[in-house]
Amino acid sequence: MNRAERIRSAIESAIEPDSLEVTDESHLHAGHAGAQPGGETHYEVTVVSSRFSGQSRVARQRSVYALLGNEFSSGLHALSVRALTPEEVS
Amino acid sequence: MSDNPVNERIKTDIAQNDVMLFMKGTPVFPQCGFSAAVVQILNHVGVKFGSADVLVDPEIRDGIKAFTNWPTVPQLYVKGEFVGGCDIIREMFEAGELEQMFDEKGVAREAA
User: Fold this and answer.
1) What is the pTM of this model?
2) In this predicted complex, what is the ipTM?
3) Which of A1, A15, A35, A59 is the 20 to 30 Å CA partner of A86?
4) Residue A81: beta bridge partners?
């Protein structure tokens, strides 16, 4: 699995989201701090789940980050997170 | 962890600056797009802020991630409380909640 697939799989198995998008944006950061020749450094995640109801923005993002400790320790540099409830999307 | 010197430095920074940004680069020369975005927003809403450049200080770079339990930089603290990173600051700004938070916490804002 590449990193995007691992991110997707970690979030899906833990959160069972209503919807999940994982986008590799590493190419947008080529040559910047944190970029690596093989890419796989910068990602954007949009995850929709009713579990986020009543949670602060920090708590939501922290719960997503917490699933991805292995990725952060193996070269993941930046992960933009949009963590929304179904009500916030509609 | 209270005797950890890096944590003590972070606590001092946070205590001495109502608005404290841990970032890559400096407010004048940000070295990362995410840090640059937060600086731009803070300047736009007109708050004064302290900053620490984690790129010149590896101890703080690792230390702030552990201190906040947050794996990425930038990180914004307001009145001693962690507010978020770039995504959260941007979302709050776009929703008009950022200015509201500064006003509620009694942080002075000057017209941009």
Assistant:
1) 0.92
2) 0.87
3) A1
4) A45
